[in-house]
Amino acid sequence: MKKKLLGVLLAATMAVGMLAGCGSSSDSSSETTDDATTTEDTASTDDSASSGDLITIGFAQVGHESDWRTASTKSCQDVFSEENGYDLSFVDCDNDSAAQLEAVRSFIEQDVDYIIIDPIVSTGWDTVLTECEDAGIPVIVIDRTIEDSDKYTSWVGSNFKTEGLAAGEWLKAYAESKGISEINYLTIAGSTGASAQIGRTEGFDEIAEANGWNKLDEQDGDFTEDGGQSIMESYCKSYEGKFNVVVCQNDNEAFGAMTAMDNAGITYGLDGDVILISFDACTAGLEQVAARKISADFECNPLAAPFVEEVIKTLEEGGTPEKEVYMEEHWFALTDAMVDFSIDGEAQTMTEVTDEVIEAQY
Ligand code: AHR
User: Is 299 near ligand 1, meaning CB less than 6 Å away?
Assistant: First the structure.
């Protein structure tokens, strides 16, 4: 749809003289990468799609590693449905960066109108984004950020460092309220190099350093339940009796860590010996907060698609969307763990986990 016009607008916006490369392929390839899984591939098959009724979109998703990811995928598939006027080509890249680059290139070949990328890692993007730019295809980045290129139209997502800072400031206030003076913590990190991992580690460790907490270890649990369990099993052996806080960088890792601690006879949560912190706050995570197992859960909003649609509508109307769109997020706990804390002087509000709150979550 209006690809050539958008190409011109893009070029003007980004001040890049690249119209020579704006020719669109009418290749009807719907082929994706060998490694990646195409769970839905309904991309239009010729250039007529560009001027037809449906807006064609290619979405290179990280994978299917977590409840959060499932919610993110569903959000995109719901919003970018045929019923809503879209033709979505979806590629699950299975946490494989090479497969993700290949998926983006396949979208360029398909000459889609827009490309959505949730970047597995934050670097290594400039070349392929230049190829998108040369093809006149606007790229919208969601969730994780790209650090080594600004050749995308907009990014929609969460502030991972703020999430980490929130978890750290909450722990400081909660520990004080319980008279806990010494913090020895273990981190089960998300996939190394993902901006979600980098930001959460940076934010939490900043508060830890400022308060003299002792970081015993950080290992990559890959944002999966299996990863969380196996890292926690090894932590239980190596740091037996030495830790009183475990920070899991997503809910699925926390579920795995819970299994490992159950098996090792370690108690955790609001009534246990170990404070268990998690991120994402998906339905299953909040259920564990309600069960007093996860002490506090720091949300990462997966519902970017409606905001992405706004970006696309702005572009379709010839406007210039915001370069960065931050989504709202909440910090969750039960009443016993709802403490007052601030981030950089700004007072934070905690949300109490109730049945209604769980019901309304994704
Ligand atoms: O990038 C967002 C993170 O990736 C979420 O915290 C996690 O669940 C997902 O896999």
Answer: no
Tell me which residue has its CA closest to atom 3 in ligand 1: 196
Domains and CATH numbers, the chain: 7-157+302-326 (3.40.50.2300), 160-300+330-360 (3.40.50.2300)
pLDDT, averaged in runs of 10, over the chain (362 residues): 43 32 29 41 40 88 98 98 98 98 98 98 98 98 98 98 98 98 98 98 98 98 98 98 98 99 98 98 98 98 98 98 98 98 98 98 96
State in Å: Cα 63 to ligand 1 middle.
10
Q: Is 3 in the pocket of ligand 1 (CB under 6 A)?
A: no
d(CA 100, CA 118): 9
Q: Is the CB of 309 under 6 A from ligand 1?
A: no
CA of 341 to the centre of ligand 1 (A): 24
Ligand 1 centroid to residue 40 C-alpha, Å: 21
